[in-house]
Amino acid sequence: MTDHRAALNDLRALLGDAHVLTGEATARFAKDWTGKWRADPLAVARPASTDQVSQTVRIAARHGLAVVPVGGNTGLVGGTANTGALMISLERMTAIRDLRPDAGVAVVEAGVVLSDIHDAADAHDLIFPLTFGARGSARVGGFLSTNAGGSNVVRYGSTRGLVLGLEVVLADGRVLDLMSELRKDNSGLDLRDLFIGAEGVLGIITGAVLRLLPKPRHHATALAAVRDLPSALTLLRRLQAASDGAVEAFEYMPRSYMTALATHRPDLRQPFAIQDHAVMIDMGGLSRPLGDVMEEVLAEAVETGEVLDAMITQNEAQRRHIWDMREVAAEITFTRLPIVDNDVALPLDGVADFIERMHAGLARIDPQADDLIVAHLGDGNVHLTVYPTRDDAAHLDAIREMIEGVVVDLGGSISAEHGIGLSKLATMTRRKDPVALDVMRAIKAALDPDNRMNPGKVMPDP
Amino acid sequence: MTDHRAALNDLRALLGDAHVLTGEATARFAKDWTGKWRADPLAVARPASTDQVSQTVRIAARHGLAVVPVGGNTGLVGGTANTGALMISLERMTAIRDLRPDAGVAVVEAGVVLSDIHDAADAHDLIFPLTFGARGSARVGGFLSTNAGGSNVVRYGSTRGLVLGLEVVLADGRVLDLMSELRKDNSGLDLRDLFIGAEGVLGIITGAVLRLLPKPRHHATALAAVRDLPSALTLLRRLQAASDGAVEAFEYMPRSYMTALATHRPDLRQPFAIQDHAVMIDMGGLSRPLGDVMEEVLAEAVETGEVLDAMITQNEAQRRHIWDMREVAAEITFTRLPIVDNDVALPLDGVADFIERMHAGLARIDPQADDLIVAHLGDGNVHLTVYPTRDDAAHLDAIREMIEGVVVDLGGSISAEHGIGLSKLATMTRRKDPVALDVMRAIKAALDPDNRMNPGKVMPDP
């Protein structure tokens, strides 16, 4: 206890009393979005600069405290869960240090909220393409530490590809300065991509240089009921070929999703009767409208019977409405417990197989269980939530293990975009190449020898 | 000596006499393209499979031998230079294990030559976008270990972005299996991107899953003389906006380059008189021809005075001719010694500044020195070769240091795409963030504790 008091005193001397939260004041960090994971930290420190983050980490080191960074607290895998750690909130580091439209770069601090970056870019007719439902809360440090995915990866690539530079506070408090804005840089090992997606176990991201891209001037957006998943993939290929790859989102929303949507958000009226398979399509063009392309490709697919029904939006309000139908996914997913939530990636042509085999497996283990699927189909990324009929750990784990087995069998990944955190440690042990796990542990031990940076996350103990 | 004999015996027992080269038989590995770097290995082993690579590395470990992997031997930085190491040539691992057109993936072994991948993709109307002059010799393991860049990065992104999966033999002989073909995979630390560009210091790449993309059906290609560098960048932005980012190459070839081209390759006739600044432009479209866009944008730029002269190619032979003018760069660069060759990256809007300040510095140090510049301008990547008038180490280093100073001052990198090898160790010591160097060394020590994987490369001793 004495040690803790000394640590808190040091932190207060550095940051001021108002920025070292304890007790009740930490309540808003205690619970995550899923409701499954809890944080019960010794304190939450709120440094206002990279230098203060560095000093805070040094104080933690001196007093032997574990350090858990937190951004917008929108993660889904227990990445900030802890007991007795020093949480470091980046929420005061909200400066957009620089934005140079001609160079297409924004230099941001780790606490900037994603939608604020969108707004700042938009003022210059630019976009930062990464987007997902929680964009109004998620912060730079968090969405980079999880290499967050979202709906636009099919067009603009992964988050890693949108980051040019990075600033990280290491376990010993030193600042790693990789804040370049270069398109090419082969000067040694690629440290940037190692810290992106590391979920805070190697260091704390404090700043980044992000790529901004020209804002599409024209959008073509549609909701289409399709015959089956292969028809959806054929449709995607035709749209890509006809538009030079202008498809920005291609989201699979089958009957299970549309039914949950109708139940929980009847205000989001659906343009046609619910059918087995539907996709939301958004295309973006700089130099030409894409409405004709959308209409032609869909008309052709209606004739071949691959598309059963379709609605092309006529204005921005309709477009927003279709997007809202997709973006409330997290809200309508976490409506009841128990759940087994999965975020898996598959080879593009393996999604239909996955769903079929998973349903067969579920019918054996828990025939009355419901499930809900929504997928970034263009990336082979399926969000599958199972609602089992019984809430005992062994039962939930049996379901999880069955799903993992199908995923790994098909050459997939047990985490596509949400990360590992605490939620998938057992899965990592069961399913990840043991050599890869060893290499990860060796890197972790090299950079954080005292195991104080978000300990216990990402890599299961051997 | 006894040890060496024992090691060679073990290798011969594993691979057969024909695949353990010594003495004269190693001559073709002794010299690199630049003529500056030498390899004098104990032997060159030529394993035929991942398992044989693994066994070879284990034999090297048992006998305390350093291991230096070699692919097509087209590197420019001394990455395979050594004395007394066991070189491991991947040249027998030339299988394209799988190519699935609908999934857009090719599974290749590390010894496959780049142009063979191009041909295999082309047969299915697909491309593997990475390309550069040495594509007829460079092999997978080499171009991935250097994260090779080239002319198409402006359109298709870096080599890292074109790799989905990777297979690596580690220092202890274990095989790290990251051979997935997923678009998204957040299951732990990003090991793939760490081994890509590591120049063999962390392990030996033995296989990869590469992304294949639809082959453009239409090309528009031109050579244009421009007023100055800012005009060139304005031209690039206009072309990108008018074509939805279809610019595949935007190569700067100023007077110094065109003059050397005229001298060394008079057969490659130039379409107009040499002027101060020229750019080669190539655009590629899937769904529409881009000739009209090229013509309109160039015509507009001629009117504003930004473009002084231009030639748009009318057929594939002319297009090939223009590309040849660019791709002989390595050939016409390394025609005489001494040279100080630089491969630097700058913020896009810093290239003009760099050239001006570099010329001013050179005028002070060696007023009679020549220089030759060719640049991937769309990436801010400048290849600058200086031909000093005196060949003494201190003089060459003074030039190098002056250039580095300008680069770092402008927020650039001292290696854009060629890598570090041996050639830029001093530069790394002088110019790289010392914290970054420490982190690299810590990772190296964790994965290769005995320092046997391509030792002495990339990271200078502290």
From TrEMBL, chains A, B:
Its cofactor is FAD. Keywords: FAD, Flavoprotein. The keyword Flavoprotein applies. It holds the Pfam family FAD-oxidase_C. GO terms for biological process: respiratory electron transport chain. Coiled coil: none annotated. Gene3D superfamilies: 3.30.465.10, 3.30.70.2190, 3.30.70.2740, Uridine Diphospho-n-acetylenolpyruvylglucosamine Reductase, domain 2 (3.30.43.10), Vanillyl-alcohol Oxidase, Chain A, domain 4 (1.10.45.10). InterPro entries: FAD-bd_oxidored_4_C (IPR004113), FAD-bd_PCMH (IPR016166), FAD-bd_PCMH-like_sf (IPR036318), FAD-bd_PCMH_sub1 (IPR016167), FAD-bd_PCMH_sub2 (IPR016169), FAD-linked_Oxase-like_C (IPR016164), FAD-oxidored/transferase_4 (IPR051264), Oxid_FAD_bind_N (IPR006094). Residues 37-215 form the FAD-binding PCMH-type domain. One of its GO terms (molecular function) is catalytic activity. Belongs to the FAD-binding oxidoreductase/transferase type 4 family. This is FAD/FMN-containing dehydrogenase.
